[in-house]
Amino acid sequence: MHSRNSVRYYLIVAAVLIFLFFSNDFGLTDVQKTAIVMAAGIDREGPTFILTAQIAVPQSSDQGEQAQAVQIESRGETVAEAFNQINAKTGWYPKLVFCNLLVLGEDTIKSNVFDALDFFIRDEYMSDNCFVAACEGTAKEILNTQTPIDPMSGVAAQKVLSAHAARVGTVAPMTLREFSIGYFNDNKSGYMPIRKPESEPESSGAKGGEGQKQGESGQEEQKSEEGQNAGAFLPYIPAAAGSSTQSAGGQKAQGEEEKKVFSAAETALFYDGIYADKLDPDETFAFSMVMDKLRLASYTPVSDGVPYTLIVKHNQPSVKFSVDKNATAKLNIKLKVTAGLQGTAFSQSVHEMANSGNVPEKVFEDASKDLTEKITRVFEKSKKTKCDIFNVVGRLKKFENKYFSAFHENLLDRLVFSVDVRFDSLR
After folding, report:
1. Contact by Cβ (8 Å): 72, 241
2. What's the chain's Rg over C-alpha atoms?
3. In the predicted model, is pLDDT for residue 416 greater than 90?
4. Three-state secondary-structure class, residue 305
């Protein structure tokens, strides 16, 4: 595992060097003073933006080249001002070309989030495919979380938002580009996953005061050691900030904080850039089914008090919008789901186990009712919050444009909604 990480970070370092040479007036910017921002968190205190940047810093060691992560915190009346403070505080030139995650803190999403995202949208090096996520508490806490998944917490959080996570229905990921399109469209709606750190059942490593003191000692040693190398400046990050230096092998100087994993099973809904409500994990799964993002998803309905875990192999959603001759707007959602039995919570006979792909009809009936109810809940939240996550206004404009001026302001309120879910067995 360590060798794989080393190879990966070798490649990152090589790519960074090549990019910097050709993008900074042929290398006029000192590479050793370049801050590679891998993830960023935006919090607010009143009118002040607090930017937490997770920066990858290549460092040589006896074992070879490694990548370390440090947290830099800066403040400003705009995110741009806070971002520029990174250079003023550290002497580094921050670059966003490899930034794969933006985390918005709880206070940030209470006002228009595009006040925080404006800078990143305008930056010419920022990737449109960067993931965006909300969080409970502060974004700083998310990025300071130690995780066993990856030495950089921002990278670990990004993995949970990957295409694979979307295919199994555990998260509804959102990119900066997609979220921006929703905001600037007629429906002014969007969504993003809610990031949460969760403790592992068993956690090793020191906690509390002694561990923090050891971590501080390790950081002081590192600070002293790095100070001997010109151009390899690493700012001292207090242990109280939850930011001990991380290495590619997951090793720290001394002491170790509790490691946590990330979840993103809930989904935040936004209308006109402001947080309006959230979908719970079941509603998020149902929404993903409708949006045709699931591949090989696991789904556990309950039938006659017994849970059945189904493996969804195929999902064919159909979302149709229409306006009838009586000027009644309708939205009909149909799901045709092909699934097999993956496991149950009760003992089966040998014959039943040999035919485990065959799902009792009653289970499919109950599963259809369950999904129908959850999809309906999603629509009701969409209606209540005016967050048009099914893009009904867009469908009105595209397919029934003659009604657009009269309908689009209160379309969700006057909409007749229906759901039809059918399950078919794999065998």
Report:
1. no
2. 25
3. yes
4. coil
Task: With CA atoms as reference, report the closest residue to 99 among 124, 125, 121.
Answer: 125
**Contact partners, residue 3, CB within 8 Å, separation at least 6:** none
Q: In terms of C-beta density within 10 A (0-12 exposed, 13-18 middle, 19 or more buried), how is residue 118 classed? A: middle
Q: Are strands 306-323 and 329-344 parallel, antiparallel or unpaired?
A: antiparallel
| CB 53 within 8 Å of CB 72 | yes
The total number of structural domains in the chain stands at 2
Q: Which residues of 62-84 are buried (b: 16+ CB within 10 A; e: fewer)?
A: eeeebbbbbbbbbebebbbebbb
CA distance 157 to 100: 10
Tell whether 95 and 149 lie within a shared domain: yes
Bigger pLDDT: 63 vs 128: 128
**124 and 30 part of one domain:** yes
CA distance 109 to 266: 15
Mean pLDDT throughout 321-337? 94
Structural domain containing residue 398: 280-425
Beta bridge partners of 133: 103
Q: Is residue 275 part of a domain?
A: no
Stated pTM of the model: 0.76
Q: Quote the DSSP letter at residue 319.
A: E
* Residue 323 domain flag: yes
DSSP, residue by residue, 349-382 = -HHHHHTTTPPPHHHHHHHHHHHHHHHHHHHHHH
1 Cβ contact list (under 8 Å, min separation 6): none
